[in-house]
Amino acid sequence: MIGRRFRLAHVRFGKKVIEVSTFRAGETEEAGLIVRDNIWGTEEEDVLRRDFTINGLFYDPETEEIIDYVDGYQDIEKRILRTIGKPDVRFSQDPVRMIRLIKFCARFNFEIEKPTFEALLSCKGEILKSSSARVFEELLRMLESGSAKTFFHLLHQYGILHSLLPELAHYLEIKPETSLFSLLEEVDSEIKKQTITIDRSLLVSALLFPLFDEYLKESTASVEKYPHLGQIAETAHHVIDCIFNPFFKIPRKLRSIVAFLMTTQYRFVPLDGKNVKRPRASNDPFFPTALLLLKLRANVHSDLLPHYTFWTENAFNEALINTEEEAPRPRRRRRRQ
Predict the structure, then answer these.
(1) Residue 289 falls inside a structural domain
(2) Is residue 133 situated within a structural domain?
(3) Is residue 134 part of a domain?
(4) Fewer CB under 10 Å: which end of the chain, C or N?
(5) pLDDT of 270-307, one tens digit each?
């Protein structure tokens, strides 16, 4: 048995470990955050505590029958999202359910029934009562889902993004023609191809870079001397903090990598517009990831394609030549006299 708040059982099945939750009971229409959930009950009592009807189905492997107490199967056929019980109570008990609701909309193109949708709009401010770590994990999973563009569009449209990431929401309001959603669409396309595994740091960078690029270009529009890469890196850390504060606490390692990926974009394409004469690949292990971000940007902005081609054709060849030139020469063995 594991877990303090939610008791779970780990059942060993050969080399696998299957996580099983017990059936739970208790009040289902009591508003307020759920802080204790260890009262055991029947399967019918358990399903009445769940979030949406489409998640309220059981399956009996012996009889091969679906057990449905909440008409969830019908809602799946109708492609409708509906809470089990009163939607405002469900969202106040666990505000992360609002994120999950939008997730189902984005991934499966389901419609939200009217009472559930009205509760979503009226309870959206409750999201700040959630665990920031849980919400951040949900955002990362949606960036990995192949439906990030639709998800963040709906998150902004329904007003929840303004509570979670106010700087990003404000940017989308004043720059509705931003390339942010086009960049997320490229991320979705790469994920759906399943040819490569995209690191989470790249996914976060794709979400933040359009705002960072806009901020950096506006702040350097009237300067006589453009900032060097070290100064750009400092600005990247500042912008990351501004976007995620005050609700999220982004892990330090992830923050550092995202800052590197965004800063390296100006190594590829300098702010002054001058072409790099001799491209040199960085020794940083995330340099190829930064180059992949440039590729995604080039798919959105065709004027960046020559820069991407130039770096892919020259940078790594140059790095290979330098490595060979700097390799230590073998020492000659002395003959014994």
Answers:
(1) no
(2) yes
(3) yes
(4) C
(5) 988 777 777 888 889 999 999 999 999 999 999 999 99
pTM (2 decimals)? Answer: 0.85
Mean pLDDT in residue range 62-67:
95
Q: What is the rounded average pLDDT of the residues 250-254?
A: 95
**Which burial class, exposed, middle or buried, applies to 184 when counting CB atoms under 10 A from its CB (0-12, 13-18, 19+)?**
buried
Q: Look up tokens 């469900």; give the residue.
A: 90
Percent of the chain, pLDDT > 90?
69
Identify which of 112, 128, 123 has the alpha carbon closest to the alpha carbon of residue 90. Answer: 123
Q: Which two tokens stand for residue 74?
A: 């019908």
More confident residue, 155 or 335: 155
Q: What is the rounded distance in angstroms from the CA atom of residue 20 to the CA atom of residue 8?
A: 6
Give the tens place of pLDDT for each residue, 172-203. Answer: 999 888 899 999 999 999 999 977 779 999 99
pLDDT over 70 at 319, yes or no: no
Per-residue HEC secondary structure of the chain comes to: CECCCCCEEEEEECCEEEEEECCECCCCCCCCCCCCCCCECCHHHHHCCCCEHHHCEEEECCCCEEEECCCHHHHHHHCEECECCCHHHHHHHCCHHHHHHHHHHHHHCCEECHHHHHHHHHHHHHHHHCCHHHHHHHHHHHHCCCCHHHHHHHHHHCCHHHHHCHHHHHHHHHCCCCCHHHHHHHHHHHHHHCCCCCCHHHHHHHHHHHHHHHHHHHHCCCCCCCCCHHHHHHHHHHHHHHHHCCCCCCCHHHHHHHHHHHHHHHHHCCCCCCCCCCCCCCCCCCHHHHHHHHHHHHHHCHHHHHHHHHHHHHHHHHHHHHHHHHCCCCCCCCCCC
Containing domain of residue 158, as a range? 25-164
Q: Cis omega (within 30 of 0) on the bond before 330?
A: no
Task: Report the percentage of the chain scoring pLDDT > 70.
Answer: 89
30 is a domain residue: yes
Domains: count for the chain: 1
